[in-house]
Amino acid sequence: MPKDLDVAKRAKVIEWLKTEVVDHVSRLFKALWEGSTARVSDSIASLIMSSYILGRRLGVSYREIDELLIDKLKKHKQEGHQLEEWYQDISTLEEHLRKR
């Protein structure tokens, strides 16, 4: 494949993935409005999947995303994030990621 076509194809895929992320956020909000637990779960899973793939297409490995996420969780925990104080969500997610 000529280099120009490869660059154009890669740019087009990145733009498509960006629209996928926005679409999944929209679907999540609609599912929340409708109160559909199954659709909420599906939308969240799709959003996470598209975000990981977009990151990879932008040159960030899945492992690096996981490590950055764990670092961010540690920082939020140290800073006393309200979700940690109220529900221990930060610790729970950090533990889940470490067990994977």
TrEMBL record:
Organism of this sequence: Paenibacillus antarcticus
GO MF term list: nucleoside triphosphate diphosphatase activity
Protein origin, superkingdom: Bacteria
Protein name: MazG-like family protein
One Pfam family it belongs to: MazG-like
GO biological process: nucleoside triphosphate catabolic process
